[in-house]
TrEMBL record:
PROSITE patterns: 4FE4S_FER_1 (PS00198), 4FE4S_FER_2 (PS51379). Gene3D superfamilies: Alpha-helical ferredoxin, NagB/RpiA/CoA transferase-like. This is Lactate utilization protein B, LutB-like. InterPro entries: 4Fe4S_Fe-S-bd (IPR017896), 4Fe4S_Fe_S_CS (IPR017900), FTHF_cligase-like_sf (IPR024185), Helical_ferredxn (IPR009051), LUD_dom (IPR003741), LutB/LldF (IPR004452), LutB_C (IPR024569), NagB/RpiA_transferase-like (IPR037171). One of its GO terms (biological process) is lactate metabolic process. Keywords: 4Fe-4S, Electron transport, Iron, Iron-sulfur, Metal-binding, Repeat, Transport. It comes from Desulfonema limicola. The keyword 4Fe-4S applies. GO terms for molecular function: 4 iron, 4 sulfur cluster binding; metal ion binding. NCBIfam families: LutB/LldF family L-lactate oxidation iron-sulfur protein (TIGR00273). Residues 302-331 form the 4Fe-4S ferredoxin-type domain. The keyword Calcium does not apply.
């Protein structure tokens, strides 16, 4: 996260005041949900595929160290140079070193959430290197000076009018137009020149097969292929969980990913990168680097329950179906990963003290779990993280930060009252007599603010039963 202090409550309140944002999101999410539904119209087939996807991801995570070692060996054998980074800063330094070695001052980038996690563009800018986003959505938000608001469609929060205005103002010599084809042509023309100017290309990795050392990259615009083919050097960055065991594990995951993300059977481009340009080949980079980033993932892997977070294939469909995300958009979350996946991933990476408030933004309606193509039990993990916020013996960084003396005392008192029959009877009597005075101010304000105050019975169950002469033990 950038240095700005994270205040989720404030961000949410601000976002809810933005009616244009909600309108844009409602329109876009509705379309994405329909497309996904159409491509997965056979529920039984989808379920079978999800079970398969889940087992592929769980198998990969169960032998992750071994697979990563194999991936490194295979990639090295194929001529790809492998780097390991424990922190995002180390990963940035590795990219910088490669750029400096090649005396490169322009980086053309395909879409990569890991590079967002690294805040790579800003880091490179501080070292005099220009990073140019070439994915259309990323290009739009780079022009606007914003961060992505969705993990698949980064500029989803913007409508056509806003983009028209942005192109007109930010791309020199561009006339104002609201024609989609013309807007596409403007972006295409602007970016095409940049591919040739970029000395180094950077991409993410959707999956990497340990068996063959193959990096798989799915995309629709062809910009990913340009970034990984035109510049003489290609750098691929990936989170260490992206590895799968075999090449044959990739097709079912692609089917789940593209169907869930964009409602497509398959994307326009599926790039399988196995080596740099070989002797006699006419195109392709002469040098390929793979940067494998940890950034807290090993710690997540060590916990058998929380490990399920790493099954994620970043399809973004949990965002599209989340009643919270679809009202507030991605920027309100304040970190790189928004929506349901962000709620479980970010607090584990950044710590509960810093990002734990996100876990409160869930109605636990289970929509995210129902649509997740690899069956991550997101609500269960949200509950776990919520509990850890209060638990002094928890394992997640920042656990117990919400534990408060008053709350502990209140629960102790509750326990006492319910253990001693006389106290229980007295408190029930008091609640019946004075419960209607339950305050709308003070510590109970938050609760009564959005809920109807409970009406306590005038008599306890014991009294009623006794009066009515019902036999009981
Ligand atoms: S948690 Fe599931 S639904 Fe959400 S982005 Fe990851 S794979 Fe997709």
């Amino acid at each position: 996260m950038e240095n700005k202090k994270f205040n989720f409550k404030e961000n949410t309140a601000q976002a809810l005041l933005d009616s244009r944002l909600r309108k844009n999101l409602k329109f876009a999410m509705g379309a994405m949900i329909q497309k996904r539904r159409a491509v997965f119209s056979n529920a039984q087939e989808l379920e079978k595929l999800r079970v398969l996807g889940n087992s592929i991801r769980r198998r990969a995570l169960s032998k992750l160290p071994e697979l990563l070692e194999k991936l490194e060996n295979k990639c090295t054998e194929n001529g790809i140079i492998v780097h390991w980074a424990e922190t995002t800063n180390q990963a940035c330094e590795i990219v910088l070193e490669i750029m400096q070695k090649h005396k490169a001052d322009k980086l053309v980038k395909g879409k990569s959430m890991v590079s967002e996690e690294m805040h790579l563009n800003k880091f490179l800018e501080q070292h005099g290197i220009e990073a140019i986003e070439t994915d259309l959505g990323e290009f739009i938000i780079q022009l606007a000076g914003e961060t992505p608001s969705h993990i698949i469609v980064p500029a989803i929060h913007k409508n056509k009018d806003e983009i028209s205005k942005l192109f007109h103002e930010k791309i020199p010599g561009t006339p104002y137009t609201e024609e989609v084809e013309e807007l596409n042509a403007i972006a295409r023309k602007t970016l095409r020149k940049m591919f040739y100017e970029g000395h180094v290309g950077l991409s993410g990795v959707n999956m990497a097969a340990a068996e063959t050392g193959t990096l798989c990259l799915v995309e629709n615009e062809g910009n990913g292929r340009m970034c990984t083919t035109v510049p003489p050097v290609h750098i691929a960055v990936m989170g260490l969980e992206k590895v799968v065991e075999k090449l044959e594990d990739i097709p079912p995951l692609i089917r789940l990913l593209t169907g869930s993300a964009t409602g497509q059977l398959i994307t326009t481009y599926v790039n399988m990168i196995t080596s740099p340009r070989k002797a006699g080949e006419k195109d392709g980079p002469k040098e390929i680097h793979l940067v494998i980033l940890d950034n807290g993932r090993s710690k997540i892997l060590a916990d058998p329950q929380l490990r399920q977070t790493l099954q994620c294939i970043r399809c973004g469909t949990c965002l599209n179906h989340c009643p919270v995300y679809t009202r507030i958009g991605g920027h309100a979350y304040g970190f790189v990963y928004p929506g349901p996946i962000g709620k479980i991933l970010t607090p584990q990476m950044e710590g509960l003290e810093k990002a734990g408030a996100m876990t409160t933004a869930s109605s636990l309606c289970n929509a995210c779990e129902e649509v997740c193509p690899v069956k991550i039990p997101i609500p269960e993990l949200i509950r776990r993280l919520r509990n850890e916020s209060y638990d002094l013996n928890g394992t997640v960084q920042g656990h117990g930060y919400k534990k408060h003396f008053m709350e502990t005392a209140a629960w102790k008192a509750w326990e006492l009252v319910n253990r001693i029959p006389a106290l229980n009877a007295a408190s029930t009597k008091m609640a019946g007599l004075f419960g209607h005075m339950l305050p709308k101010a003070g510590p109970l304000k938050e609760w009564t603010h959005t809920r109807t105050k409970p009406v306590f019975a005038q008599k306890s169950l014991h009294e009623t039963v006794k009066e009515q002469g019902v036999a009981h033990e």
